[in-house]
Amino acid sequence: MKIKAAVLHALGASQPYSETKPLVIEEVELAPPGPGEVLVEIKAAGLCHSDLSVINGSRPRPTPMVIGHEAAGVVTECGPGVEDLKTGDRVVMVFVPSCGSCLPCAEGRPALCEPGAHANNAGTLLSGERRLDRPVASGESTLHHHMGVSAFAEYAVVSRRSLIKIDDEELSHEEAALFGCAVLTGVGAVVNTARVSPGSSVAILGLGGVGLNALLGAKLSGASRIIAIDLQDSKLTLASELGATHTFNAADETVIEAVRDATGGGVDFAFEMAGSVKAMEQAYRVTRRGGTTVSAGLPHPDHRWDLQQVSMVAEERTIKGSYIGSCVPLRDIPRYIDLYRQGLLPVNKLMSEVLDLEDINNGFDRLASGKTVRQVIRF
Fold first, then answer.
1. Which residues neighbour 27 within 8 Å (Cβ) at sequence distance 6 or greater?
2. Domain with 70 in it: what CATH number?
3. Do residues 213 and 226 lie in contact, with contact meaning Cβ atoms separated by under 8 Å?
4. What does the pLDDT read at residue 284?
5. CB 359, CB 21: distance < 8 Å
6. How do strand 225-230 and strand 201-205 relate by DSSP bridges?
7. Do both 159 and 19 map to the same domain?
8. What global pTM score does this model have?
């Protein structure tokens, strides 16, 4: 079938994207779903920093590629072997398909699925196949998939193992899309990776969609002090409205001392959500002796952080990475949606704008500026 999609032809385009237009809206060919695959009509897709990192080259991926990984939609057709979904089912997409049989999956850590990671790096579906093509007249015909999803398109063929069925008919598609990445990653980093306990002190550095979801997760977990740190004062204001007890601008040269003073020596848990080495250094330095520093940011692979090893040893520090919030999607997405319906995870307050697909390059300009939280494309 022919569909409209946003195609990224090359990495590293310069800004403003409204002028360089790294994403081109094209008519492409989408093949039917193969064994274990599903055709989904995309209803909403969020613009995430992980998408921006592909556009600017910080997260190298094969091109040309239809990008987009945070989305919700409706099942249109099931391929051979898919018997637990049917046409009309509502689904949220997860950007690491879990094979269910590799060692991480067997250990209950599907976010670290090895075949899923291999397929994502290669730009294929979990099966190793590609279902996207361009007309031969356009030159290179093969199109790569982004994170097994390729959500900036009217339709997508994905592995069944990239989908979580949702039953909440009142949840809008725009809200549902957020649960596939921003909520899983941010809330999960707090409740799964760090296991923040009631009464703990928490600092969150970087208040994008993921960072603000981490803030919501910290409040949900009963943290007594929640420190929000960002370069944008508007985001600090929003953080206060969402439950932050203290806010600091990251550009302030005294921010580390200010946080340590406000918390009596540092926080129990610090979360780096900006994908920045400087933010990671700040996160480590505001963590108290015996505390835990968690990073869910994705900086350029060449970026390095100089760790003072003696402080890690002598102060019994813990440093952890968190990918997709150490999630189990089949367990976590329904739980988080239920918490949202109860008013305990007000993720709808994080949506900034609703866009048309044709406005996608302008949307990524706004995201790169740091002045927006979560923009969602509505199809």
1. 2, 3, 4, 5, 135
2. 3.90.180.10
3. no
4. 96
5. no
6. parallel
7. yes
8. 0.95
